[in-house]
Amino acid sequence: MLHLELLAPARTADIGKAAIDCGADAVYIAGPAFGARAAAGNTVEDIRDLCSYAHRFGARIFVTVNTILYEDELEEASKLVMDLAAAGVDALIVQDPAVIEMARGTGMALHASTQCAIRTPEKAKFVESLGYGRIVLERQLSLDQVRAIRDAVQAEIEFFVHGALCVCYSGQCYLSEYLTGRSANRGECAQACRSRYDLLDANGKVIVKDKALLSLKDYNLLHRLEDLADAGVCSFKIEGRLKSESYVRNVVTAYNQALNDLIAKYPQKYSRASFGHVSGGVAPDLEKTFNRGYTELFIDGARGKWSSMDVPTHLGEYVGEVARITRDGIVLKSSAFDLSNGDGFAFLSGNDIVGFRADVAEGLTLRCRVPEELRVGTKLYRNISAKFQKRLEASAPVRELAVFTTVRLSGNTIGVTARAEDGREATVSLTTDNGPARDRERMLSMITGQIAKRSGHYTFLEPDIFVDGEVPFMTSAFLNGIRRDIAAALDGMPVKANPLMMGTVTRASAPKELSYKANVANSIDRAIYSQRGTEKMEDAYEISHRPGAELMRSKYCVRYELGLCPKQGKNKPEPLYLLNAGKRLRLDFHCAECEMTVTQS
Asked: How far apart are the C-alpha atoms of 513 and 264, rounded to whole Å?
């Protein structure tokens, strides 16, 4: 049986706990340094606390140590790895091979980050040989490509299913470093793909002006989990380590429900990677949380319209067209939505997005400070639903472990045996001097009612009761004490968590030559590759700043998005150029591979 894992992001430990409460089987989070989102760091003590919380449900905590490491950072990184192991971290998400050496013997599993740019079976097999128990695949892959990689390795397969998309193959984007000196491989991406560019032809003629030509829509594979599981994916990863708690709760809830539905469909084939059931909370709605429009990208092996070049941020759900503008607000022609006080709205004004809040919403009338750019006929979108946000904040879900109990009554002795859903067992046996109950059936009903309650994070189910002789009289306080004693006994035992796959080091050969795209940045990296047969290694781009370097390679194609692809009956001469703040980038189109590259010009 394949254990399926829902892997949620967390900017902070509190958000991580919220994700666990909503049904996440694992959470990934950054420590104080060396995470690929520099703005999302946490102390080791915060991570220790999160580990304790997650482990109550057999859920896992993965920490990102997935930047490339410079020589003078090796000692600090090694100490951090030891500290994370002592804090109870289950796995490290790693890009730099040096971290593999640092983590040996710690008991933590090693997961090859998506920053390792794994998109072929050959690359997957080599990365696995370094000792990774799991590999996180590139997002721009089809199901057939995922399946081919699954067939080539023994390691677990993790795949992104939701959230923001990098336009470049992950781990090999140097555009931010080139334009701003902020390296994506060092956790400081400036999101140059969300910037606006002019597109020029080979003669310098402007084809498109002031568009976010490299910005993609957001990933949404909510309805493709069965296909991914069938292709061999065991971990379904949500992007968003910079996102808010409300975002994480909404998205995790949606995918938790979808994963439970999949397992209910195939109970003999799949199960969840952790334990516990979620109750309460708010019905999720992915349209009401941050997105740039959704895409399934290349999952079916077909090119589509993936760009969010007109709106590289969250515009929201379309609510209606402006019919009138009054002195104190606006009136919509019509709307299918129930608008409320405090809703946030946005509209396009040229290439800009203008936003405002409604102080009061009465039917189709919004009382607000009217932006000067707003016109009659403007299409209005809602990017903040005040009611939905309030419901999210006020209705936190509860996650609990089921406990199955058996009660045996013999004379004046009551024995209760309990088994938590993860397999832990505890027994409590007590005697009472109260004598037999006057009303046998009422006493049995009371035993059932007092045992079958919640205690801490446990839900005690109705017990099976076996009676040998009289039923002793017991007070509700006495029975509640038994239930609490069992909960305490269970808490004293570690949860029987499903094991993570631990990698095995094998001696697969490395390429004889490695370009700057291998991101080699320290002496440990060099030693690892040299031992595997590499004879020539270029320094990482962040060190060499290699002139004329390819800054980005992608399945995404600007020419296709604009209807200029030869397969669309067009033949726009190459190359094309992007212009931003005086810097020019060359676009080349590799039709045989159906890829686009961005190069220093």
From this structure: 49
Contact by Cβ (8 Å): 491, 424 = no
Helix (H) or strand (E) holding 121: helix 121-129
Element (H or E) spanning 18, and its range? Answer: helix 13-21
Q: What pTM, to 2 d.p., does this model score? A: 0.95
Residues 21/252, Cβ–Cβ less than 8 Å: no
For 408, how many CA atoms within 13 A lie in the half-sphere containing its CB?
8
Say yes or no to pLDDT of 572 above 80.
Answer: no
Query: What is the β-pairing status of strands 583-590 and 536-537?
Result: unpaired
Q: How far apart are alpha carbons 408 and 463 in whole angstroms?
A: 10
CA distance 52 to 132: 25
DSSP letter string over 36-83?
A: S-GGG---HHHHHHHHHHHHTTT-EEEEEE-S---GGGHHHHHHHHHH
Average pLDDT across the chain, whole number: 94
Burial (CB count within 10 angstroms: exposed 0-12, middle 13-18, buried 19+), residue 478: middle
Nearest C-alpha neighbor of 108 from the set 133, 125, 137, 126 = 133
Instruction: Read off the pLDDT of residues 158-206 as tens digits, 9 standing for 90 and up.
Output: 999 999 999 999 999 999 999 999 999 998 999 999 999 999 998 889 9
Cis geometry, peptide bond prior to residue 575 (ω within 30 degrees of 0): yes
Structure token pair of residue 324: 């009138």
Structure tokens that stand for 211 in this block: 């568009």
Of 120, 384, 363, 359, residue with least CA distance to 244: 384
Query: What are the start-end ranges of the E strands in 101-176?
Result: 109-112, 134-136, 156-163
DSSP string of 483-525, one letter each residue: HHHHHHHHHTS---PPPPPPP----PPPPSEE-GGG---SHHH
Distance in Å from the first CA to the final CA of the chain: 52
Q: Coil, strand or helix: which one is 412?
A: coil
Look at residues 167, 172, 189, 171 and name the one whose alpha carbon lies nearest to residue 180.
189
Tell me the C-alpha distance between 470 and 414, whole Å: 11
Cα 598 to the chain's mean position, in Å? Answer: 28
In three-state secondary structure terms, 392 is helix
361: which strand partners? 366
Give the tokens for residue 57.
Answer: 């449900």
Please state, in angstroms and rounded to a whole number, the distance separating the CA atoms of residues 77 and 98.
9
528-to-84, 118, 134, 504, 524 alpha-carbon distances in Å: 23, 18, 19, 15, 6
Nearest to 454 by CA among 413, 483, 422, 485: 483
- For 272, phi then psi, to 5°, come to -80, 150
Summarised one tens digit per residue, pLDDT across range 477-524 is 999 999 999 999 999 999 999 999 999 999 899 999 999 999 999 999
Locus of tokens 């049995």: 444
Name the percent of the chain lying above pLDDT 70.
Answer: 99
